[in-house]
Amino acid sequence: MNKEFEFLNIINKTLDDNSYLGNDCAYLDEYKLAISCDILIEDVHFKRRYMRASEIAKKAILSNISDILASGAKLKYLTIALSGQLDNDFIKEFYKSANELSKIYDFKIVSGDLTKSDKIVVAINVFGDYKNRNISKRNNAKEGYITAVIGEFGSSTQGLFDLEKGLTDNYFINYHKTPKLYPEFSSLISKNAKYPYAMMDSSDGLVDCLSQISSKSGVKIEVKYDKIPKKTQNKDFVLYGGEDYSLVVCLDERDFIKFPFLIKIGECNKGYGVYIDNKKTDYKGYEHFE
């Protein structure tokens, strides 16, 4: 079993109330508030020799924002806890980048913390408002639903691969350092989808998204590989590579036709598991604890 899933199972069994767990965001219905938190750690999620402070800030913040967008909520607030061998220049550059993103994505930085550690650690909490929105849940996919995507797959992993080969600047490297998000499309779906839907970002890979939706919803998801939008030719990167933050959504066909920006890659059928070109695909998402 994936070690993260093993830990999550322990957490679920340990807590008296685990009803808020199971999606990338916790949904507080009494406040119509979606909350998510994430951590990025030096030499696990990024390497200093490849990335400046401004680029670390972008990657950390955008990857967290992506969870709110995948829920369908409207991003509102963000907190930043930052640890490491910090100096004035790093703090200034990091927060200058954070400030620029706050203007682009319309959120406020409202709190945080600073401390010292051997490696840089960025912990972020994001808060979104889902009043008058139809939010996503992983168990919402149903037999007969369309499986569709926004964005591309495998490009971020290709960028990291190119960096490790010694390349310094190309399309994939820039894509890896600065993820592309889709706030306007997320908003259109949550405001206009009439029926329940399941949407995730591909932070841990396309097959990871499909596997989690399949497992939670109890459906078989069948995908045509040639329909997946991609620029890299590496099939493993496309299917299993993480940190693209593209959106993967399973929704009713009556809603699908409302959104011409969605690219259909497959459908949900009776059964269980993920099938690529009629071949069952074993789960192989990002392993956080290797």
Description:
The protein is an alpha+beta fold and 290 residues long. It contains 9 helices and 12 strands. The protein has helices spanning 3-14, 53-71, 88-105, 155-164, 171-177, 183-192, 206-217, 235-240, 253-256, and strands at 26-28, 33-41, 74-83, 108-115, 121-129, 146-150, 198-201, 220-223, 247-251, 263-269, 273-276, 279-281. The strands form 2 sheets. A 7-stranded mixed sheet has the order 7-9-6-10-8-11-12, sandwiched between helices. It has a 5-stranded mixed sheet with strand order 1-2-5-3-4, covered by helices on one side. The mean pLDDT is 93.
Structural descriptors:
single chain, about 290 residues, alpha+beta, 60s Ribosomal Protein L30, Chain: A, Phosphoribosyl-aminoimidazole Synthetase, Chain A, domain 2, 2 domains, five-stranded mixed sheet, 9 helices
What is the number of strand segments? 12
Low-confidence stretches: none
Q: How large a portion of the residues is in β-strands, by DSSP E?
A: 15-25%
User: What is the strand arrangement across the widest sheet?
Assistant: 7-9-6-10-8-11-12
How many angstroms separate the termini? 12 Å
Question: What general form does the structure show?
Answer: globular
Helix content: 25-40%
CATH topological fold name of the largest domain: Phosphoribosyl-aminoimidazole Synthetase, Chain A, domain 2
In summary, what is this structure?
Helix content is 34%, strand content 24%. The protein is α+β, with helices and mostly antiparallel strands and 290 residues long. It has a 7-stranded mixed sheet with strand order 7-9-6-10-8-11-12, with helices on both faces. Strands 1-2-5-3-4 form a 5-stranded mixed sheet, with helices on one face.
